[in-house]
Design a protein that fits this description.
transcription, DNA-binding, 231 residues, FCD domain-containing protein
């Protein structure tokens, strides 16, 4: 185990066992280096790694603190690795996504307010009206994010947002088949929003699962290239 790994796992153990609690300032560098048996350079690199994961928060002029350790924030850091997944790896996640999207749709159907329903149909109308694939993708993301928000579990919403962020890099709507696929996708969105508006959890779950499964089939069949970040 390298010195950086030793420092990383040592700090992680302190946090996991509750020795360092959420919002607490970590001990001085000299004390940690002595306890963990590492150099200042190794400790600082471990702190940078944990900060990138949302576990620690360096504060200029004040020191380094343990974050609030909110599940939704820590799950969001998964995007650092999931953004690297090639298409075959992403497709393996679709089985998980189908289950979770169905669950949040059912919860949203049980809890949706008139304001939520109005937002969903407004987003659908905007999706149907635009001819810009990038704008359509953004509206699609907002549509699903609104359903996840209405479900009432920020952790699930964060996890699904990470999944969707990688999925959006593989754009099927920009392919020659794109217009036909978009019409099918828009129809799926209407079915899902209608079930939520009717407060029918079973129908909403079925519509969400079918929609995600359809997207998975398109990705498997068409194998679109990764969208260029600089485009």
């Amino acid at each position: 185990m390298s010195a950086v790994d030793k420092a990383f796992h040592g700090l992680r153990h302190m946090i996991a066992t509750g020795r360092l609690g959420a919002g607490e300032k970590i001990p001085p560098e000299a004390d940690l280096c002595e306890e963990l048996g590492v150099s200042r350079g190794s400790l600082r690199e471990a702190v940078r790694m944990l900060s990138a994961l949302g576990v620690l928060e360096p504060r200029h002029g004040s020191g380094t603190y343990v974050s609030q350790l909110r599940p939704e924030d820590l799950i969001g850091s998964l995007s650092l690795t999931l953004q690297l997944l090639p298409l075959p790896g992403l497709l393996e996640l679709y089985e998980i996504r189908r289950v979770l999207e169905a669950h949040v749709a059912a919860q949203a159907a049980a809890r949706a307010t008139p304001e939520t329903v109005g937002t969903l149909f407004s987003l659908i109308e905007a999706m149907e009206a635009t001819e810009d694939p990038t704008e359509a993708s953004d509206l699609d993301h907002r549509f699903h994010a609104e359903i996840a928000r209405a479900a009432g579990n920020p952790t699930l919403a964060s996890l699904l947002a990470v999944f969707r962020a990688r999925s959006r890099k593989y754009q099927v709507f920009t392919l020659p088949e794109g217009p036909d696929l978009r019409r099918k996708s828009d129809a799926d969105h209407r079915n899902l929003a209608t079930a939520i508006a009717a407060h029918d959890p079973g129908a909403a779950a079925g519509a969400a699962e079918a929609h995600v499964a359809q997207t998975e089939r398109w990705l498997r069949a068409l194998e679109p290239p990764v969208e260029d970040e600089g485009a």
